Automatic annotation (TrEMBL):
Keywords: Decarboxylase, Flavoprotein, FMN, Ligase, Lyase, Magnesium, Metal-binding, Multifunctional enzyme. CTP binds at D103, K113, F150, K168, K172. The lineage of its organism: Bacteria, Bacillati, Actinomycetota, Actinomycetes, Propionibacteriales. The gene is coaBC. The chain holds residues 179 to 407 of 407 of the full protein. The keyword Metal-binding applies. This is Coenzyme A biosynthesis bifunctional protein CoaBC.
Length: 229
C-alpha cells in the first residue's frame, strides 16, 4: 500500500465513489434495504485520498465516520443516489459504484404508518428503480472517464460466478466490473473480501485481502483502463 500512496498516481484527478445501501421507504418508519455497510466504498475513498485524488463520496445510509480529506454527500433512496451521481460525476475522471442500490421501490409510500388489517397479510407493489451505473455509461460525455461497477452475485452450479460476472459486464457496459460473491457471511459488513476484476481484456484474480488492499487493486485497474484511452 505504501508505494502506491507515495506514487501519488491519482494526483490531479477527481474521483466519485458511491457507498452503502439505499433504502426505499414504505411508510414513515419502514423501508426495504440491504446489508451493505459502506466499508468497501470507504476503503476506496481512503485509498484514493492517499494516492492524491480529490474524492467525493456519495453515501447511502453509512454510519461510519467520514474519511479525512473527502467530501461526503448523504443519500437515502436509489432515486436520491441517481440524482447525486448525475450531479457529481459530470467532471469526474474515475467513478466507482460500490453502493448496493435497492433494485425495487414501492409504487406508493404511505404518509402514515401502515396498520395491520385483522389477521390478514400484506401485499406490496414494487417497481424497478433506475439503473444508476447504466445511466452513467449512457450519458458519459468525457470519453476518458473510467466507470467501475461491482457485481454482487450468489453463484450456483448452473450459474458459476465468472459466467454471471461476464454477462453483467456486457449488460452494464462499464470499463471494470468488480465481481464478488455475497452471502450471509461474505462481503457485506466484513473487513476483507475476495474479488475478480473483469474488463474487456479478461478476468484478473481472484484477489483476497483487506478491503483497503483490494481498493488499491481497483484503482490500479481503473488507471490502467485510463491509460488505454
Ligand atoms: N447498480 C446501479 N443502480 C441500480 C442497481 C445496481 O447503479 N439500480 C450498480 C451497483 O452499484 C453495481 C452494479 O450496478 O455497481 C451491479 O449491481 P448488482 O446488484 O450486482 O446488479 P444489477 O444490475 O442490479 O442486477 P441483479 O441485482 O439483478 O443481479
Ligand atoms: Ca441489484
Amino acid at each position: 500500500i505504501a508505494p502506491r500512496a507515495a506514487a501519488q498516481d491519482l494526483a490531479g484527478l477527481r474521483v466519485v465513489v458511491s457507498a452503502g445501501g439505499t433504502r426505499e421507504h414504505l411508510d414513515p418508519v419502514r423501508f426495504l434495504g440491504n446489508r451493505s455497510s459502506g466499508l468497501m466504498g470507504w476503503a476506496l475513498a481512503r485509498a484514493a485520498v492517499l494516492r492524491g485524488a480529490e474524492v467525493d463520496l456519495v453515501a447511502a445510509n453509512v454510519t461510519l465516520p467520514a474519511p479525512p480529506g473527502t467530501t461526503v454527500h448523504p443519500v437515502t433512496s436509489t432515486a436520491d443516489l441517481a440524482a447525486a451521481m448525475a450531479e457529481r460525476t459530470a467532471s469526474a475522471d474515475l467513478v466507482v459504484m460500490a453502493a448496493a442500490p435497492a433494485d425495487f421501490t414501492p409504487t406508493a409510500r404511505s404518509d402514515t404508518k401502515i396498520k395491520k388489517a385483522g389477521d390478514g397479510g400484506l401485499h406490496i407493489d414494487l417497481v424497478q428503480t433506475t439503473d444508476v451505473l447504466a445511466a452513467l455509461v449512457r450519458h458519459r460525455s468525457d470519453p476518458r472517464q473510467v466507470l467501475i461497477g461491482f457485481a454482487a452475485e450468489t453463484p450456483t452450479a448452473d450459474s458459476p460466478l465468472l459466467e454471471l460476472g461476464r454477462a453483467k459486464l456486457a449488460r452494464k457496459g462499464c470499463d471494470v466490473l468488480v465481481l464478488n460473491e455475497v452471502g450471509e457471511h461474505k462481503a457485506f459488513g466484513r473487513p476483507d473480501n475476495e474479488i475478480v476484476l473483469l474488463t474487456a481484456e479478461g478476468a484478473d484474480g481472484p484477489h483476497t485481502g483487506s478491503k483497503d488492499l483490494l481498493a488499491h487493486l481497483i484503482w490500479d485497474t481503473g488507471l490502467a483502463q485510463r491509460s488505454h484511452r
